Automatic annotation (TrEMBL):
Domain of life: Bacteria
Residue ranges occupied by any Isochorismatase-like domain in the UniProt entry: 12-162
Gene3D superfamilies named among the record's database cross-references: Isochorismatase-like
Protein name: Isochorismatase family protein
The organism of origin for this protein: Dongia sedimenti
InterPro entries assigned to the protein according to its UniProt record, in alphabetical order: Hydrolase_YcaC-like (IPR053152), Isochorismatase-like_dom (IPR000868), Isochorismatase-like_sf (IPR036380)
Length: 193
């Protein structure tokens, strides 16, 4: 029996976690805008490939909304979940959205790597989903980003990059050409394909 370790666009859901100004402000200044730009680009990729997106913002009344650049990329009428826990699998309405999307693979980006990303990834993995965290699609103030990634790797969560996941979702040159036609060829600063 062959084991397929790649992620698939028809099985994947992109989860955008807590990209709020409150958390971005904790990152070094030079990391903030590039991180948001990379996540926005990946959201456009997901949209073009018909990959569902679930978005959360932690305690919006206190910490503010999802940043406008990302909120604008959600499908029309889709709301952002007001996450009142660190791990999204621990909140009933988000857990219901995970089940309702009908996907078995979850790709996580956002903030913060060692807390909400880690708790969410571990909770989804405990629920027997395949989970990937994109190293250049999430952040935490140093040294916590690296520590969070180490924890996830040690727990068996796939840690990869935006570039890597892009190509796992695309898979072939015909799909790549259609994607480029849909979203263009401009890349965020620092991202190469």
């Amino acid at each position: 029996m062959t084991i397929d370790l790649l992620f698939h666009r028809d099985r994947s859901c992109l989860v955008v976690i807590d990209v709020q100004q409150y958390f971005l402000a904790k990152l070094p200044l030079d990391q903030r805008a590039p991180l948001v730009a990379r996540i926005a680009w990946l959201m456009r990729v997901a949209g073009a490939l018909q990959i569902p997106i679930i978005a959360t913002a932690e305690d919006m009344a206190q910490d503010g909304p999802l940043v406008p650049e990302l909120a604008a990329l959600l499908p029309e009428g889709q709301s952002v979940f007001d996450k009142m826990v660190f791990g999204l699998a621990d909140q009933a309405d988000i857990r219901a959205a995970v089940a309702a999307c009908g996907r078995s693979e979850f790709v996580l980006v956002g903030l913060e790597t060692d807390v909400c990303i880690a708790h969410s990834a571990l909770g989804l993995a405990a629920a027997r989903h395949r989970v990937a965290v994109l190293e250049d699609g999430c952040g935490s103030p140093p040294p916590h980003h690296a520590a969070g990634l180490d924890r996830l790797r040690n727990a068996g969560v796939t840690v990869t990059t935006i570039k890597g996941m892009h190509y796992e979702w695309v898979r072939d040159l015909a799909t790549l050409a259609k994607l480029k036609a849909a979203i263009g060829t401009e890349l965020p600063a620092g991202l190469t394909l």
